[in-house]
Amino acid sequence: MLDADLDLSFAPVRNVRPKRLTTAQIAQYNEQGFVQPLDAFTDREIANIRWVVDRYMADLGPDGAYGVNCYQARLSRLWDIATDPRILDHVEDLIGPNILCWATAVLSKAPRDLRAVPWHQDASFWALSPARTVTVWLAIDDADEGNSAMRFIPGTHNKGALPVAKTEGSGYVFHKGTADAGALGPPFTNSLRAGQMSMHADMLVHGSMANASDRRRCGLTLRYCPPEVQITDEAWARGVEAILCRGEAGSWRTHPRPENDDITKTASPHVVGNN
Fold first, then answer.
1. For residues 109 and 129, what is the distance between their CA atoms, to the nearest angstrom?
2. Is the pTM of this model over 0.90?
């Protein structure tokens, strides 16, 4: 945890005229910390996005499965996905008309990838306050229980920072996570068809199991916040390259759409985490 003074409380969404979500979906987000499934891209569109993502990963070589991290201001096609109006209309219903995308990551679990992602709360490891980031999880492949879809523990988004413990064993993507998560309630499997997306609050406990199947499970996370969220650590700020997706940026420094789409001609500025 970076700073004990971070505001990690949850602020319920109050939106009586949503663009894309229903009032019932907003109520679910407030109560459970997530909403899904949401249609974003057609089969043809997500096939094209999959080709782009596969190219990024292939060009990175052995690091590709988890290495396409925070390139939203450095790769033009990724910038285009992050600023797609269909995604932003959903996000706006939760955080308002001023939208920044400050992080993205491709998260690809290969068939028979035996590494798990432990239960964790994202915002407790970020230098951002207040905790108002909404994470979009866009399914590049079909994701379900069989190929290790992400799982949520509903209702854990409004409990503040929960105790953290080291994970036991070596089969994890990282080696700390939420302590005693099994006592927090039954998990929900975030099953999505390719082209669909979910949205979850930044303090919701989530993780994923090892992929014991013969199917890949690839997703793209996009992290959005309103400009009233502030970076609280100068060193951490140097690794954040935000893009303004809609509205006004406030005090945030943002980056224009890049011309480059060759991942071998640039580098990731920051490593944020995995799901």
1. 31
2. yes
